[in-house]
Amino acid sequence: MPAGAATATLLAVAARTAWTIRCIALAYILIQVGIWHSFFAARPERLAGPVAAVLCAAFIAARLRWKPLGWRLAALDTCVAAVLALGAWWCVPPAMQGDTSSWLYIAVISQLIIPAWFAPAVALVPLTLAAAAAFWIGAARAAPARPGATSPAAAAANLVTTAAVAWCALWLLGRRARAADAALARADAESRADYVGLTLSTERREHERLLHDTVLNTLTALGRAGGFAAPGGAGDDLDQAAAAARCRHDITLIEHALGAAGDTGGPAGGGLLIAIEAVAAEMRARGLTVHVAGAGSLAEIPAAVTTALAFAVREALANVARHAGTAQAWVELDPVTGAGRGVEVTVRDRGAGFDPARVDPARLGLRRSILERVTDWGGQAAVRSAPGAGTIVTLRWVDPAPAPGLAPGPVAGPLPGALPC
Predict the structure, then answer these.
(1) Are 98 and 145 a contacting pair, CB within 8 Å?
(2) Is the model's pLDDT at 105 over the cut of 60?
(3) Is 360 exposed, middle or buried (0-12, 13-18, 19+ CB in 10 A)?
(4) What share of the chain is helix, strand, coil (3-state, %, to 5)?
(5) What is the Cα–Cα distance from 346 to 370, expressed in whole angstroms?
(6) 343 and 374 in contact (C-beta within 8 Å)?
(7) Cβ(324)–Cβ(391) under 8 Å?
(8) Which residues contact 235 (CB under 8 A, 6 or more apart)?
């Protein structure tokens, strides 16, 4: 059988079932030896038969607890059972010889499960016929048929039927298991394809956000300023120097994103607090005073989440500098308590504020660079604001079941008061 998950489970269940059957047969042999102790005590050499059956059953049971049997052990087990069946005349009490309730019959019928389940189909027929024929011959030689007793031929036919039923049952279950494995393989292939598509889509959206946060914002600022003054004019050096510095910074971010597409490291190469400190330093250079407060233990946040949160904070602070009409902002980092690891980042200002319900849907910064950027990695985001009351941007990410590596998680539900994406 192929080594699929369902097939492997079926084989494991078959091994445990065969182990249980052999253990029951072993216990039955010991009980019958105790019941017929006078027969065995009269001639102790008669114990060789049940002792051999017990040892063989114990060995097979112990091996089944380790792994399923191969065809060689199945053939050896059948040979032992056939030899014991041929010697029924000397190791089975006369009253039980040829009877289907004797310890020998139980030992043989419990043994037939092994070739039916663990031997190749081509070996099943000769092994089954060998055991059944040996029991027939041994029972016929042991004693003449008694009134009401099962005939040796009927007992042998029952052995063959039992082996056939056991084989058919496993074959039917094996077909179902192989079909389940094929379905699982198809589902796994589809899941991998969906994962690749989701990864590519997430990377594409991140590049679009990066272009918005850098090139588009820089060009918008230049357009609103009406261009540079003529060379030699007042403020010429300052305007050109600021614009050149901003362009160089944008180039650095884009090169980092395009040149290290498989690298999920944060913009500062460290933990979330370090990355946000770097963002705050950049915004301070642009004239916005940023106060950062947080805990060093937040460095355990995955690098990809660190990058997303840091860029979202950068865009939130850029919005403060552009629209809030204030020169100060506060960034707070707090660990999320409870199950799993997580962090909550809050960006506050006391500026002009705005009405979230009146935000133009065409505006990309708030929706794509902040909200969607966090939710793409399974986080939550909320923007709370009102005219004249400032703005609060809350970003939260929690991983309830940390695992090696990181893949884009499902989009979590919005925080209370979240601005629709």
Answers:
(1) yes
(2) yes
(3) exposed
(4) 65, 10, 25
(5) 12
(6) no
(7) yes
(8) 229
